[in-house]
Amino acid sequence: MVEAVRKDDILTIKLRFKPVVPDKLERIYDSISKTDYENSFYLLAGNKKHLLLTDSNDKPLTDPYLVIKTTKGSPIAGSWHGRFPAPPKEVTEVSLTIPGVETLDAIKITDR
Fold it and tell me: Domain of life, per the record (predicted)?
């Protein structure tokens, strides 16, 4: 499941991963280097690339690591979220790129 919510000048993206193979642990990424931040985590809105927002210590506003763990009977194997600058109101869909996950296209934006 993918959710994109635009509120004021921030777009929050949330992903929830469903289990495919039971009892498996998969590390998608363990840390975020400056190069990763600049090249591997971004949103495409129209033809404009948006990087993750950062906090006052220049840490990206996302999970510092992503691990997916599947267990029998669990509806969710893991989740991810990130905050980006919101694209203009006329932009209604975005594409998301994060390491270890195929690019997610045509994510519909919900305004709140």
Answer: Bacteria
What pLDDT does 61 receive? 95
Q: Give pLDDT tens digits for 29-38.
A: 999 999 999 9
Of 38, 52, 47, 44, the residue nearest 95 (C-alpha): 44
What is residue 13's predicted lDDT score, i.e. its pLDDT? 97
- Identify the CA nearest to 50 among candidates 60, 64, 59: 60
CB 79 within 8 A of CB 17: yes
- Show the domain range for 38: 2-111
